[in-house]
Amino acid sequence: MLDLGRTFLQSVERSPHAPAIVDGDLMLTYAQWYERIRCVAAGLREIGLVPGDRLLAVLQNRWEMATLHWACQFAGIVMVPLNWRAKPEELDYCVRDAAVKALVFEPVSADAVLASPAAQAVPCIALDGAAGGSMSFASLLDSVALHDAPVAEASAVSLMLYTSGTTGKPKGVPRRHRQERAAALAHVAQNLYRHGERTLGVMPLYHTMGVRSLLAMALVDGLFVCVRRWNAGQALKEIATHRITCLYLVPTLYHDLLADPGFDPSAIRTATKLGFAGASMSDGLLRRLALAFEPELFVNHYGSSEVYTFSIDQRATRKPGSAGRAGINTRLRVVRLDARSPDDLAATGEEGQIIADLRGDEAFEGYWNRDDANAKSLRDGWYFTGDTGYFDAEGDLFVSGRVDDMIISGGENISPVDIESVLSLHPAVDEVAVAGVPDPRWGQKVVAFVKSRGNVDAQALDTYCRGSDLVNFKRPRDYVFVEEIPKSPVGKILRRKLSAGEYVPASHSRNPDLNLNPNPNQAADATPVDTIKE
């Protein structure tokens, strides 16, 4: 298999004059971008980086970040992208854990870099005159471009992504060139991308979705339009200006596009291929997007940093909630929740843990310096995802949540996603998340946290649930109205924060006399909530 450097050369050779990347007023063709990539690769070599060394970048989605990614592929350097919002202690941990040899940053991440002893101990390459740099990114561009062949082979490590670390320290996920290329090829095939596609480069390049969009565009000689910081109004302008043909976003960002006052269906109809991943999409949002975009393809992609594709459904609106079937490089199973072996299969319709075959072309081989995590997640050649789900009678996979998010109430296992899907269809519900809250009688109580877009109270929502096909024991017993649903930087619902009372109550209470107090440190009258009687 080709390495990623030679993969990029394919596009340069096929379509040297095709537009490759846009960032604000900057537009580069493949030939022009290649010259800059070669200069940066030479500059990294000049400061002493050799194949196999790790380079950490804390940058937004700007052309320099994308250029660094490709330069590392040519130079055989391992790219280690990190959230530009990272705190000093997070940065410190990752610099030490990955044993990075250099770091690239910009003003928005400068405070964290300056406050990290580990970061200060390595060469720090600054963009835009950021304080604390030992050299500038411009000096890399001034280097004499490399003219030799790419250094890396397909078996070399391409990058190391760090997981979000919601339940502990982040875990490094090393991925080889061949695994990254296989994932990008699968992305192209599963989203039916054609030559010359144009995408919005908004998913962060420290996340597998952002990296996949970047690599996929090179495979089809396409255009990657950088979006440094999410703004729905600006994104809509970019879609119209650059005639974006395909979108690959988390559900939250699609929600924001539809909610923006400037949303005009006629201006975004060039985007005929929609894809989403990173979180489940509610039935309500699926329907609204289908009506607004009228896409020719609507793909639900389910995957992870460790194994890019688990499953896909190319007709997401056909069976709302379905994650489809295993991707072209993947084998999947659902095993019992207490399974010790990948052969302990759950029955059809039975909720269990989703596992993936590690022999798949996209699968990683284990976490970086984390034998404990490997022992927990890698068993007998299978990756135990920590996600819950089930296969229906037709063989389609449904993802119901995380093992850690499962609500156990009165001895019953209850999935939050099923309840969220029902409530999302209520016309007055803008967003909803369901979580378990400690309860002395039931162990945990099912609570729906609702961001509304109209006048609605708990009784109306409960009546709505009673009229649906939701079984009685899954009905929420409390409704908390909030200003926003807490999410991670890439749009995943943070149910642990809701369970712990870490949210902003809605400014108007629908029933101020009834209050839930899941957090003993929170004032009892701080949360507007409605409670449903049995």
Automatic annotation (TrEMBL):
It comes from the Bacteria. It holds the Pfam family AMP-binding_C. It is an enzyme of class 6 (ligase). Residues 10-368 form the AMP-dependent synthetase/ligase domain. Residues 512-526 have a biased composition (Low complexity). Residues 419-492 form the AMP-binding enzyme C-terminal domain. InterPro entries: AMP-bd_C (IPR025110), AMP-bd_C_sf (IPR045851), AMP-binding_CS (IPR020845), AMP-dep_synth/lig_dom (IPR000873), ANL_N_sf (IPR042099). GO terms for molecular function: 4-chlorobenzoate-CoA ligase activity. Its EC number is 6.2.1.33. Keywords: Ligase. SUPFAM superfamilies: Acetyl-CoA synthetase-like. Residues 504-534 are annotated as: Disordered. This is 4-chlorobenzoate--CoA ligase.
